[in-house]
Specification:
The chain has about 375 residues and is an alpha/beta fold. The chain is built from 11 helices and 18 strands. It has 2 domains: about 1-165 and about 330-365, Alpha-Beta Complex (Quinone Oxidoreductase, Chain A, domain 1), CATH 3.90.180.10; about 175-310, Rossmann fold. Strand 11, helix 5 (about 195-210) and strand 12 form a beta-alpha-beta unit. It is globular.
Length: about 375
């Protein structure tokens, strides 16, 4: 079928709006009419080839939409269902069998391979392959092919065009707190980087009852929003030493911290600010090969670091919970979003990279 999509033609090149041909859904696939898609940091670093995804390709991995058709083997959803599209996984490896889908042994291939798992393409232009199936969706388009594994049914009374970012970025930030770190009520957490992922973590920390929630950034406007969304303290890192400030606020260091910037210097601060037995969660996605250094004695005295992918989430369970929190006014994702049309996608990317917008969402009309 004919679709309209934003194609990434080559390394660091602007998105190009093109008419493409999309395959019909196979037996385990779901054809979704896209309503909205979040623009994520990962889309932009893939465009710039920090991760080796073959180009030309259609990116986009925070889609939401309405099921148009399903393959013969699909039972989870049917035509007319409202869905959020999340990351893909194999369902066969040991980690998947244990419910740790974000740590699937085939995670990179299933999400960054830009083809079906069997290597076949889903998209073409004038007979030439355009790489698709990015994160099992490629949702910078009017229609996308997803898989039964990575479609999540959501209530029809929820604002569908707003929900796409729950499939990746907001799920990652909120899940890092709720599913991975699991802080008890009354504890302290420092969030380094208050973009959309970090602010999702701030909101989640408020939901679970953290009483000291510290946002750290170099953007004063983002810190103001962090205050609005639940941060009890904010630190402008360009003017203050975050580690010293956090120790002054907490007395002996934060019990939990999250590193959302992918910068080694900031990662070091997120570890150094911890109290003894504190835990730092790493969710910032750095370019492959990026290294960080630590004082070994900092780790020796009971502190720990753990990497967190996709918020340790089981999307079928966690995304509907986040939707319900939003509907109750306890997870106000609408405060993060600015809408763009598909032909404004390059402007959306520029605004995001400059820090002018927290979470651009491409609305397909």
């Amino acid at each position: 079928m004919k679709i309209t999509a934003a194609v990434t033609p080559g390394k660091s090149q602007p998105f190009k709006i093109q008419e493409l041909e999309l395959d019909e859904p196979r037996e385990n696939e779901v054809l979704v009419r896209i309503v909205g898609t979040g623009v994520c940091h990962t889309d932009l670093v893939v465009r710039d080839q920090y991760y080796p995804v073959p180009l030309p390709a259609v990116l986009g991995h925070e889609g939401s939409g309405i099921v148009e058709r399903v393959g013969a083997a699909v039972t989870k959803v049917q035509a007319g269902d409202h869905v959020v599209l999340s990351y893909n996984s194999c369902a066969k490896c040991q980690n998947c069998k244990e419910g740790h889908y974000g740590y699937c042994n085939e995670l990179f291939g299933y999400n960054f391979g830009a083809s079906r798992p069997d290597g076949s393409p889903t998209l073409s232009h004038n007979g030439e392959v355009v790489h698709g199936s990015f994160f099992g969706q490629s949702s910078f388009a009017t229609y996308a092919l997803a898989y039964e594994r990575n479609v999540v049914k959501v209530p029809r009374n929820a604002p569908l065009e707003l929900l796409g970012p729950l499939g990746c970025g907001l799920q990652t930030g909120a899940g890092a707190v709720i599913n991975a770190l699991r802080p008890q009520a009354g504890t302290s957490i420092a969030v380094f980087g208050t973009g959309s992922v970090g602010l999702a973590a701030v909101m989640a920390a408020r939901v679970v009852g953290c009483t000291t929630i510290i946002g750290v950034d170099i953007n004063p406007q983002r810190l103001e929003i962090a205050r609005e969304l639940g941060a009890t303290h904010t630190i402008l890192a360009s003017d203050h030493d975050p580690v010293a400030e956090i120790r002054q606020i907490t007395g002996d260091g934060a019990q939990y911290s999250l590193e959302c910037t992918s910068l080694p210097k900031v990662f070091r601060q997120a570890v150094d600010c911890l109290r003894l037995t504190g835990v730092c969660g790493l969710i910032g996605a750095a370019p492959l090969g990026t290294e960080a250094t630590f004082d070994m004695n900092t780790i020796l005295f009971g502190r720990s670091i753990r990497g967190i992918i996709e918020g340790d989430s089981v999307p079928d369970l966690f995304i509907p919970r986040l939707v319900e929190l939003y509907m109750q006014g306890r997870f106000p994702i609408d405060k993060l979003v600015k809408f763009y049309t598909l032909d404004q996608i390059n402007q959306a990317a520029e605004d995001s990279e400059r820090g002018d917008v927290l979470k651009p969402v491409i609305r397909m009309g």
